[in-house]
Amino acid sequence: MPYDAHTSVADLRRAFHRHPEPGWREFRTTARVVEELESLDVDDIAIGREALAPDKRMAVPSAAELEPWLEQARGAGVRSDLLDRMEGGYTGVVAVLEQGPGPTVGLRVDLDGISMAESSDDDHRPTAEGFQSEHEGYMHACGHDAHIAIALGTIDAVRNSDFSGTLKVFFQPAEEISGGGKAMAEGGYADDLEYLFALHIGLDHPTGEIVAGIEKPLAMAHLTATFEGASAHAGKAPNEGGNAMQAAATAIQNAYGIPRHSDGMTRVNVGRIKGGTASNVIAEEITIEAEVRGETTGLMEYMRTELERVCYAAAEMHDCDVTPRVISESPRADSDPALRELVGSVARNVQGVHQVTETTDFGVSEDVTYLMERVQAGGGLASYVLVGTDHPTNHHTPTFDVDDESLEIGVAVLSNAIRACSSQRP
Amino acid sequence: MPYDAHTSVADLRRAFHRHPEPGWREFRTTARVVEELESLDVDDIAIGREALAPDKRMAVPSAAELEPWLEQARGAGVRSDLLDRMEGGYTGVVAVLEQGPGPTVGLRVDLDGISMAESSDDDHRPTAEGFQSEHEGYMHACGHDAHIAIALGTIDAVRNSDFSGTLKVFFQPAEEISGGGKAMAEGGYADDLEYLFALHIGLDHPTGEIVAGIEKPLAMAHLTATFEGASAHAGKAPNEGGNAMQAAATAIQNAYGIPRHSDGMTRVNVGRIKGGTASNVIAEEITIEAEVRGETTGLMEYMRTELERVCYAAAEMHDCDVTPRVISESPRADSDPALRELVGSVARNVQGVHQVTETTDFGVSEDVTYLMERVQAGGGLASYVLVGTDHPTNHHTPTFDVDDESLEIGVAVLSNAIRACSSQRP
Amino acid sequence: MPYDAHTSVADLRRAFHRHPEPGWREFRTTARVVEELESLDVDDIAIGREALAPDKRMAVPSAAELEPWLEQARGAGVRSDLLDRMEGGYTGVVAVLEQGPGPTVGLRVDLDGISMAESSDDDHRPTAEGFQSEHEGYMHACGHDAHIAIALGTIDAVRNSDFSGTLKVFFQPAEEISGGGKAMAEGGYADDLEYLFALHIGLDHPTGEIVAGIEKPLAMAHLTATFEGASAHAGKAPNEGGNAMQAAATAIQNAYGIPRHSDGMTRVNVGRIKGGTASNVIAEEITIEAEVRGETTGLMEYMRTELERVCYAAAEMHDCDVTPRVISESPRADSDPALRELVGSVARNVQGVHQVTETTDFGVSEDVTYLMERVQAGGGLASYVLVGTDHPTNHHTPTFDVDDESLEIGVAVLSNAIRACSSQRP
Amino acid sequence: MPYDAHTSVADLRRAFHRHPEPGWREFRTTARVVEELESLDVDDIAIGREALAPDKRMAVPSAAELEPWLEQARGAGVRSDLLDRMEGGYTGVVAVLEQGPGPTVGLRVDLDGISMAESSDDDHRPTAEGFQSEHEGYMHACGHDAHIAIALGTIDAVRNSDFSGTLKVFFQPAEEISGGGKAMAEGGYADDLEYLFALHIGLDHPTGEIVAGIEKPLAMAHLTATFEGASAHAGKAPNEGGNAMQAAATAIQNAYGIPRHSDGMTRVNVGRIKGGTASNVIAEEITIEAEVRGETTGLMEYMRTELERVCYAAAEMHDCDVTPRVISESPRADSDPALRELVGSVARNVQGVHQVTETTDFGVSEDVTYLMERVQAGGGLASYVLVGTDHPTNHHTPTFDVDDESLEIGVAVLSNAIRACSSQRP
């Protein structure tokens, strides 16, 4: 069921696959989504600042990091009127389809690719069939290209269906860096949602399987901390200055030692470090990048607070300053059983679906939880639906790919679930 | 040259060797010194509180630790009138010999033994000749017994000489734990000293060698720190409480990492640790005992300040409290070249002296430096004289012993040096 | 339903409450159990070595620690023939009741008290009613006294019932230190069990509630590690020797940093530390006591292996030796759903039972898992039954107590469950 | 006394000041030295491989780092015949002046600048007078430009003097990174030296002061260590892989904790660190750059060995690999008193010299010690001469400069010292 005469959902996904853009730099992707929405004749298209709470964006790159991607989009002939509205990294779209009285239903997908070079191997289908990434060093290796295509296909399907109500589709930027979820959740469009569907493809589930609602995404926070001391000559004046290297090492050792929590699973990692100038100079500045996670938002906050305490004390110990900064964060939110049930019963009737799984544990983090949390706080229901796809290798690997067949299944499940919402209403 | 008709200096030293007592518990030793002084008919004998600044004592044992030693002395028939004046650990004596107009000259020796079982080996002379320690687990293994005997012999020699002036001899308690030096320096008797001699025997120099004045005793501070957190069940509530074990481990690691100092040599050690209740309980309380040293008093203070900072920050990191306490401390003070010269020229004329060494580096710590510092601050001169002795094994070993011959040499060098002071005067 | 004419289960529990004895030192307790069993006329009574695999005992105290407890029992008039059989810390009993053809059913309870002074508060019922601990500093603060009494009551009830088969009751020593479970599991008596019931009282469940089978006791290992370096004078030779203090601190810091595991919950704690001789001596020997736990036996083993690796590397880093030793250990074992169901259906018909809970998570460790594991490995079924009791304060607190009423309920539930086993048989 | 008619030593120093080049990249500097030597008509000029033991070079940059500097020299019109001989970073020159029978005397100076942007402040004389660095980000901020000019002036002065013997002047590359000293010491030219003078300017001594021979340069080693573990997803699989971040933090903490040494001063510093890919990935690779120093070569080797041990154990603890690599190293060597005396007596007769200081402690490191050590091992004498200069700010600061007057003084002192060597000969 192609969403229009000349473009199948699979073709559309291939188009997006060619131009992966990292978080807050989805200029070309956003513009293409807008053009597709225009051709679908939706009722409202909010772009960038209109779609987001501008001051709630997290993990926004510097102007110097944004610029080349904007230029690249401009160079590729992307419409200036659209790019102008995205300047400063205000990517992302919300599309609204108004179709009579009935519930307001949301669907959220994500736009960004990741910084990983795509495989040029002949066995890799995107390479073999000529739709591999044209942005060197970047790739849609997590299926967000498929998510976008399914969302567009779903809009088309709903538009042509008996759905009565309002559909809002959130094309969220910067999911990989947990940067866009909060801004989209607080941008206004989510305020009146009675139902929210989120979508992920694959995750080791094959084509034909649907998971009606994922549970237990971990709450997460990503932090950086720069220890600032004072340099001195390590031979002549080892006692002078403040040794940022010792402060950072002490902080790292103790970060991993933050106690396990009796209420459930926690995580901590210091994944990057950089600093110092030369072996014979007491290091003046060391920056670490860390993350903490928790099975609940509270557990994540416990870890974050402890990590901050560790950093402050380590700095004090070595006469340094530090201000840990939260770069991005996402809470935990679970799928509502009632909405999971609706998805399950709809999915069982979709052609190509062989197995419907009620729920699975997610085990990692996703900032769609900000949207889910907001909807649930307002009394609405949310479910994070998994559409199985045969993927040759793991997500976030250079040979990741998806199965075309699963895309149509995704459109069918989601559009039927959305339609079912309108008949749920009392 | 025995100091009186019936007791040689060597015999006297053997008497003291039999009854080693640890710091602030030199009850029997003090009483015996007083009795010897009485028989020497000195002009003033100040005991305990009279000889010391009572509130400047450091590293004073608890009442429970003092009591058994007081009882033991009482049980051995030591005079009650003397013991009563020492109650509470106020040991130590200052003897004053007034012998006409002239300079006020000081001599300082130390009284305490150490907690080490003396060798019962037949090759060990004190055992073979029957004067080994009668206090099990304690021993005069650093030669303080010899120091006392030499001091008494010196008083006798000076008394019978042409010395004109005042001689004050300080029998200081608690040298091994750096506890008595400050109290004696500030007890009043040192205020008018124009010259001060301190004495140590041995230190790897043989009988017949005199070192006119030792240099560079290290400044030292001995600290304890108790990390107090809150216990919790390690299985059920690992996140609760405050983990004193983690705080202590962090402090220890960082204590050893206190930077070397460009101004000179420093030392740090955490030598003892104890705490916690069971493997399945988050440790509530851990106590460490540490020391720092420095080539100068300033360097020691740098180390002490940094160690305290490390402890405070480590406690804060793990939600514990800590108050590092300085148990004892000693500054650095060096021998004055002018007085070294006087000692050297005197020593060269003493029978049995084969070698006079101008100076050597001490390398460890001694709280006589408080007295030296006080004398030097008042414009006086001080020298820390080393009297060589053939000792079979190192100081602080169970088979340490001294050579009788060196005792007479010590008396001759010191009494002649004291006499020389009176002729120095303009 | 008192188990004999003159002694109620509650009275019996009070008798045991008076004489708490720690692990492997339950001399008086064992003897009293034996006497009760004799009066109950059971068919076989195995004591100490006969009841246990002698070489599988763990966490056995030293002779010096055992002796005073044996002497105390002797002094209290405990039968010599019994004490002689327990010499060396071979406490514990297995009682066998042979009652015709049918299944072999086991029941396991534990004997030891803990080292905690019992409250002398008037509000504390044992104190108010005069049955508080007569062993100063020790207390039955976890309900093992109740367990013993219920087990004896159960034997009496089964003996007088229609039960056909064999009942074996395991009175296990040293549960609190995870020392006796393995020895009892491998002592021979557990080899032919088709059913095994274990028992715990309280754990925050009120009188009238039964939990049919507890899940998820944590697997646990308790270890000690002694870091052995070489001492040296911290001022004169800081570079000599091997610093056991630094090795231990490094090990502790890194022990807490052992990574969380994706398969489930883990725990690590270093709960005690001791070592070193003086602040001015490089520490030659430091001993730590640690424990690790895991949601599964495999997770515990991961933690134990990592902890050992940390210790070895820390020792190597500081030129020390170390040999981590496992003092005691217990695996994870869960209650079988089929046996849980049997307990549940029996419990629902017991007077006084208001609520039957299918299962709960245990969250800590118990070495009954050795017995459960053995029975399950042989094809048998095991369930760890919780008998609710109103307890005024937490287990392991000085004011812990149990509700008399719950004791009779425990006897009824367990004896009826045991009877039900014989009718289960095909 | 300009060394030729049209160029003063000061002008020459300005010329070298304009083109600072870092270690092993002194292409233009080497070529200019060669051209000056040609005009001075010396007897032998050895360049690069001929002047050095090629396989003893240390801290050699990669081809990618060498290339731009070679290209820059080529672009500036430097003679190809010279550049070709230096390809691969074989910079450096030895000049030989044969002037009849007599001793073989060496003089060593260094060629490299440092990576520091020179001040563009109007108060900075090189800027004000137009001879500031033309290589952006690089500067002669330690006076090596002055050293070269003085050496060339000295050759000219000796050539025109009564000196009888052989003079060898070593223009050593890569002093700042301790890379060239060993290669030059072992290149053959130093084998027959009877006397060696090394030269440094400034170091807080004013114009008019000469230090006849510097003592106690610290022995030094510069190391890197890359901890290689295995990456894993920090949320999904924290227990997998080997955490290079934890290994590095453990190594750093323990590196600073390497015990002080009783034999003398030591130093340790970890000055740079870099590694890891993202906050949510267990770090696979972390590289640290460290240095150790010692008051003697033995003490440096103690520190290096301990640092290596720490790295290996830290890697093992966290299941990582590491191979610490020594990048460069220099021993300790002191000036010979006899040669110091010669320099002192010569210097006292040089116009402009107001003060001759016998010796001072250097306190940092210098790889000229390789040459000194070699000469001394062969029975020769070496002295490291300091020529005072008024320098407005510290060495290694952007406003460092030297006083022209001191350059002529340097030439006079060194050429007269060299002449004096020939008359020393018996």
Automatic annotation (TrEMBL), chains A, B, C, D:
A GO biological-process term: folic acid catabolic process
Give a GO cellular-component term. Answer: cytoplasm
Q: Needs which cofactor?
A: Mn(2+)
Which keywords are on file for this protein?
Manganese, Metal-binding
Annotated residues that bind Mn(2+) are located at C142, H144, E176, H200, H396
Q: How is the cofactor bound?
A: The Mn(2+) ion enhances activity.
* Matches recorded under InterPro entries: Amidohydrolase, Bact_exopeptidase_dim_dom, Peptidase_M20, Peptidase_M20/M20A_hydrolases, Peptidase_M20_dimer
Q: Tell me yes or no: is Metal-binding among this UniProt entry's keywords.
A: yes
Peptidase M20 dimerisation domain sequence ranges:
220-311
Cross-referenced Pfam families, in alphabetical order? M20_dimer, Peptidase_M20
Q: Which domain of life is it from?
A: Archaea
What are the GO MF terms of this UniProt record? Answer: dipeptidase activity; metal ion binding; para-aminobenzoyl-glutamate hydrolase activity
Give the PANTHER family listed for this entry. Answer: PEPTIDASE M20 (PTHR30575), PEPTIDASE M20 DIMERISATION DOMAIN-CONTAINING PROTEIN (PTHR30575:SF3)
Listed name of the protein: Amidohydrolase
Q: Which organism is it from?
A: Natronosalvus rutilus
